[in-house]
Each structure stands twice: as structure tokens, then as C-alpha cells.
Amino acid sequence: MLLRKYLYALALLPALLAPLHGQAAPLYTVTALPTGFNSYDINNAGQIAGYVQTELGGGTYAALYSGGILTALGGFGGSAGFGRSLNDAGQVVGVASTASGEYHGFLYSGGSLVDLGVGANALSINGHGDVVGQLSTTGGYTGFLYRGGTLTQFGNLGTGDVAVAWDINDHGKIVGESNINPELHAPFHPFLYKNGKLTDLGTLADRENNSARVINNAGRIAGYSEADGGGLHAFIYEHGVMRDVGSFGGLNLDVSDINERGAFVGSASTWDGPTVGYISFGGELIDLNTLIDPASGWEITGASGINDLGQIVASACRDFECTSVRLDLVSAVPEPAMALMLLPGVLAVAGVRRRRMRGQRSAS
């Protein structure tokens, strides 16, 4: 495991060595996914969950892309379906509509759908097949856990009436967001749910829009929090401390997925308008457009999933056409023995780069 971490860090060396605002050497190749397929998540086998847009305005259906084959997951008789998350066993969760227009959460396992019930929006699944998401109730919205055939609501923070559970790790720890003032429906605070208890994780600046979006098996949590002056910043929460990871200067930012190495991905607006996909590894946000070959013509506009091999599923545009793509790390890395020798240097470069960026922020 340690060696794999070293190789992953070395793979990011071109980005760490690049000028702070310049173009890095290409680190990822870009492969377009099937036309009409929109990706959400990728597992360690390279399987991708998402949905297919049948035609303009003609509906969608949940789908799994595996080994070059796109498989429809079925539905509940309606015209809409979305696959949101999957685990390494190929189990997929999502939501699909009925003929009457109701939405039901689903678990796709072993070639068939399990109906999680009306009003359930299934958003994430762990390695044990436990599912979390958001459930519509008569009193508002709450997070839920589906485990072993039983769906359990676990409430909201304080007196809040709107909550959503975004992610669950293999230890059963769940993260999400909940409002704490039902009269105003805001502010929202990020939470951690474990051992039957909801814990408010706090915020960066005590403003309205805050959410814990992803958690890995080491317990590292990533999400976003509204900063002073407005605008969402990414954060990392671990060991009881929330750390500001920053933004690209725009108002909007989302965090979509995290892997076991602690790298997370998402989408963010920039100060001058465009939205970009990013990766964070080592506490900084890196625009994925600086890690691909500019001659390819691709513009990465968002990132929705990352696996432990560093593969990323993203949205991208080229020649005025937009589609989902897969980003694959360039395979050339040093041999294991050389990797161990170079690791201290890689970490030192990363530290220098972080200090330099902090200095620039202080100066500004």
C-alpha cells in the first residue's frame, strides 16, 4: 500500500514542478465515453455508473459502462433514471421514475433492481452494499441508510427539516448536510453520522452554504463551505479540524468524489467565468486542464469520480461538442526501487510549492 502511494505521488510530480500559473506537462490522457452517456462514478475495475440521454427531451435511463459495453439497468416504468454511485462489486445505486412520475431509489445488484421506495434518492454505496441518500418525508427531507433490506432515517441537525446524506465509507461513517434553521431553510452545516449520532462539523465562516460531500475509509472528509465575502471554498476535515483548501476565485464549487489516497475531484467556477474540473492532492486545487495535452483540444469542465488508480470521469468539451470522458494517468513512472529513492524529493517539492502558494495568498 505504501509503495502504491509513493507511485501515485510520483505520478503527480509534473504538476508539482510546474509553474504556479503555467501549463504542466501532460499527466492524463483523455478518452471520450459513448455518445449520450453521462458519467457519475468510476470503480477500481474501471466500471462507470451514469445515465444515457435517449434523445433531446426524450428521457434518460440509468446505465453501467463496463469493458466497452453500455448496459441499461432498467427502471420502474417511467421516462427518467440515473445511476449515481457504484462499488467494486459492480453494484449501482440511483433513482428512477415510475409511469405516474414518482421517483424511487434503487439498488442494482446481480442483474436486477431493488426498489428502495418512493421519495428515496440513493446517492452513494459502500463496499458492503450499504446505501445512503435523501428521503422525502411529510416533515421535509432527511438522510437515510439502507442496510440489509432495512431503510433507516437518521434525522437532521438540531431542529432542521432538510438534510441529505451524500456518502458512506466501509466503516459505516456517513457525511452530508442539514439546515439548522427550518424557518429560513438555512444555513446548512456539514455533518458526520457514526454510531447513531449526528455531529455538526462546523463551517469556515459561519455563512449559509456548507456541505460534507465525500469520505474515504481513512476518515478524510472533503466538502465545501462558504467563505467570508461569499464564494464556496473546498475543505478537508480530519482529526477534528476543518482546513480551507481554497477555490479558483469564482462563486461556485462542488466536491464529487474522493479516493483512498485522499485525492478528491470536483468542479469549480473561476474568477473570470469558466467552470473547470479539478483534482486536489496534498492540499491544493489543481485545474485538470493544466494536466492534459492542450493540443488535444479538450476543455475539462467538471470532474465527478476518481478511483484508487487515479482514473477520473469528467465532463469535457471540444469543437463545440460536450461529452463525458475518462482521464487516465500517463503510465510512465519510475521503477519501484527508484521510486523509494525519489520520494523524499517529491514530498519536499510539494511542500515548497504549498509554501510558495501560501506566500502569494498572504501577499495578496
Description of the molecule:
The structure is a single chain. The protein has helices at 2-11, 13-17, 336-363, and strands spanning 28-32, 37-42, 48-53, 60-66, 69-72, 77-86, 92-98, 103-109, 112-118, 120-125, 131-137, 140-147, 150-153, 163-168, 174-179, 188-194, 197-200, 210-215, 221-226, 232-238, 241-246, 249-258, 264-270, 275-280, 285-287, 299-306, 312-318, 321-329. It is mainly beta and 364 residues long. Helix 1 (2-11) crosses helix 3. The longest helix has 28 residues, at 336-363. It is globular and about 55 Å long.
Key structural traits:
four-stranded antiparallel beta sheet, 50% strand, 364 residues, single chain, mainly beta
Describe the structure concisely for a colleague:
The chain has 364 residues and is mainly beta.
Q: Name the shape in a single word.
A: globular
- Average pLDDT, all residues: 87
End-to-end C-alpha gap? 40 Å
Oligomer state of the chains in this structure: single chain
Helix content: 10-25%
What radius of gyration results from the CA coordinates?
A: 20 Å
Secondary-structure-based class equals mainly beta
For the largest sheet, list the strands in their spatial order.
1-28-27-26
How would a crystallographer describe the biggest sheet?
4 strands, antiparallel
Low-confidence stretches: 16-24, 332-364
Percent strand equals: over 45%
Instruction: Give the strand tally.
Output: 28
- Count of helical regions: 3
